[in-house]
């Protein structure tokens, strides 16, 4: 007797366009989306039916039509044929579907049609990851957020990506008290107004702008040094900071300058003077943080002097330098005057020329010269004097001079004009004509200097 063979057949829901096992697993997966089925109100129940077919017992699972809700479309509920497949065939279909959906998927067995998509996805992930890796903070770095363009436009005031520049500190303008020697009164005025009055009196207005600017800085530095040290020496009343004479700096009140220059038709010169003061405003020369002794004079003999050869004290920034422009430009570079011998002896406090000198010897003799080619020591009628002392007593323009005696008369020829220490004004104008700036002029005549702010220096002094 043959053994009863049981076949289990499972109904499958028909799918649109389903063509059996001829399609590939991937195509089956793409085509198995239900097109006409909506949500069911409850699960579908299966009914087990056994029937005998010949000598074999068949078990068939069916689903009653009444378990489908009305949500199914008519074509899905009417005359639904439920195909039956054998269990072996179902298992093959199931395995194909599971492979299509990735179950039991192994790396390296990606179906051929998915490889392009996978490659594109990998490239996109790589493109996104590289910028993230580049901007990712390293160890020890502080993480900062970068504002979006919208945030930047709406909150620029609160969060600015660029640092805000520091606001420069301003200091009040100092004032200067000037003793007017003509009236014996004291005039108090702002520093820049005072400087303008000094430059108008000390340097020809026809000079180049850069030379005027250099003179402006020198004049400002001179008075700032006195103000910082509270130096009132040489002032008769003791209630002023400076006089208006050559003992300090020659000064003309600005109102008088404007009136005189306007009357003389020097409006352009006045405008240039105001420009020089304006463009060099508050600037002073410094050495080791302190305002320097900004001495200046009219005309050199071709060189400036060391401070120690004139005043006896070594000043590191007042050194002898070349000044060849004076000889070419200065109208008073060379001057000859005639004096009687008796007059010279009188001014030098000498009684008479010694007999030994009178008989065959010169009664004036140079003993030594300075680095600036001026007379350092000279002997007159047997007595020794310094060159600056002779210049002062005889009223000479320079301490470099030569002489020629004719009977009782002595012709003295001088070279240059002034003490020779610091800046030569005519030399400064010569440098300006060659295109040098005020800074270059000052650094040439004052060795190793720097620049500072006058108001700041005086404010710090007052704070102490």
Shape: elongated
| Range of helix content | 25-40%
Spatial gap, N to C terminus: 130 Å
Overall pLDDT score: 77
Structural class estimated from helices and strands: alpha+beta
- For the CA atoms, what is the radius of gyration? 54 Å
**Biggest sheet descriptor:** 4 strands, mixed
**Count of discrete alpha- or pi-helical segments spanning 4 or more residues:** 17
Physical arrangement of strands within the biggest beta sheet: 2-3-1-4
Features:
464 residues, 17 helices, 18 strands, disordered N terminus
What is the strand and helix layout of this fold?
Blueprint: E1 8-11, H1 25-31, E2 47-53, E3 56-62, H2 74-77, E4 84-85, H3 87-100, H4 115-135, H5 149-154, E5 175-180, E6 185-190, H6 191-202, H7 209-229, E7 242-243, H8 254-263, H9 267-279, E8 283-287, E9 290-291, E10 296-297, H10 307-310, H11 325-329, E11 334-340, H12 341-347, H13 355-358, E12 364-369, E13 375-380, E14 383-386, H14 387-394, E15 401-406, E16 409-415, E17 423-424, H15 425-433, H16 438-445, E18 450-453, H17 454-463
Helix pairs in contact: 1-3, 6-7, 6-9, 7-9, 7-15, 7-16, 7-17
Short account of what is shown:
With 464 residues, the chain is α+β, with helices and mostly antiparallel strands.
What features would you describe in this structure?
Helices cover 35% and strands 18% of the residues. The protein has helices at 25-31, 74-77, 87-100, 115-135, 149-154, 191-202, 209-229, 254-263, 267-279, 307-310, 325-329, 341-347, 355-358, 387-394, 425-433, 438-445, 454-463; strands at 8-11, 47-53, 56-62, 84-85, 175-180, 185-190, 242-243, 283-287, 290-291, 296-297, 334-340, 364-369, 375-380, 383-386, 401-406, 409-415, 423-424, 450-453. It has a four-stranded mixed beta sheet with strand order 2-3-1-4. A hairpin with a 2-residue loop joins strand 15 and strand 16 (409-415). The longest helix is centred in the first third of the chain and has 21 residues, at 115-135. The radius of gyration is 54 Å and the shape is elongated. 27% of the residues are buried. The model is unreliable at 1-45, 47-87, 103-108 and 140-158 (pLDDT under 50).
């Amino acid at each position: 007797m043959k053994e009863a063979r049981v076949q289990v057949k499972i109904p499958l829901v028909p799918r649109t366009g389903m063509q059996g096992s001829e399609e590939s697993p991937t195509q089956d997966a793409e085509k198995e989306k239900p097109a006409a089925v909506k949500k069911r109100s409850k699960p579908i129940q299966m009914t087990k039916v056994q029937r005998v077919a010949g000598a074999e017992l068949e078990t068939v699972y069916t689903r009653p039509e009444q378990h489908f809700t009305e949500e199914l479309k008519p074509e899905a509920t009417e005359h639904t044929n439920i195909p039956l497949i054998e269990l072996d065939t179902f298992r093959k279909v199931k395995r194909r579907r599971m492979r299509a959906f990735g179950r039991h998927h192994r790396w390296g067995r990606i179906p051929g049609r998915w490889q392009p998509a996978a490659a594109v996805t990998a490239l996109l992930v790589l493109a996104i990851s590289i910028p993230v890796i580049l901007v990712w903070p390293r160890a020890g770095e502080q993480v900062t957020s970068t504002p979006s363009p919208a945030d930047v436009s709406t909150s620029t005031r609160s969060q600015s990506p660029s640092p805000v520049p520091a606001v420069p500190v301003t200091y009040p303008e100092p004032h200067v008290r000037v003793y007017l020697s003509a009236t014996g009164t004291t005039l108090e005025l702002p520093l820049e107004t005072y400087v303008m009055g000094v430059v108008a009196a000390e340097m020809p207005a026809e000079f180049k702008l850069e030379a005027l600017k250099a003179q402006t800085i020198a004049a400002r530095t001179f008075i700032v040094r006195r103000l910082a040290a509270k130096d009132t020496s040489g002032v008769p009343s003791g209630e002023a900071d400076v006089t208006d004479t050559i003992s300090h700096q020659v000064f003309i009140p600005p109102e008088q300058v404007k009136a005189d220059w306007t009357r003389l038709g020097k409006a352009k010169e006045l405008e240039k003077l105001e420009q020089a003061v304006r463009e060099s405003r508050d600037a002073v020369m410094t050495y080791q943080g302190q305002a320097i002794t900004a001495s200046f004079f009219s005309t050199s003999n071709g060189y400036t002097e060391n401070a120690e050869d004139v005043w006896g004290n070594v000043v590191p920034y007042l050194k002898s330098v070349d000044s060849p422009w004076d000889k070419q430009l200065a109208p008073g570079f060379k001057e000859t005057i005639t004096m009687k011998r008796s007059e010279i002896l009188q001014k030098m406090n000498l009684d008479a020329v010694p007999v030994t000198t009178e008989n065959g010897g010169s009664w004036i003799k140079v003993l030594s010269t300075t680095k600036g080619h001026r007379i350092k020591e000279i002997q007159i009628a047997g007595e020794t004097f310094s060159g600056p002392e002779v210049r002062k007593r005889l009223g000479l323009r320079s301490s470099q001079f030569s002489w020629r005696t004719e009977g009782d008369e002595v012709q003295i020829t001088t070279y240059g004009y002034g003490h020779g220490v610091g800046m030569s004004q005519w030399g400064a104008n010569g440098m300006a004509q060659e295109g040098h700036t005020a800074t270059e002029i000052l650094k040439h005549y004052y060795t190793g200097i720097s620049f500072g702010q006058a108001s700041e220096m005086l404010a710090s002094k007052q704070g102490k």
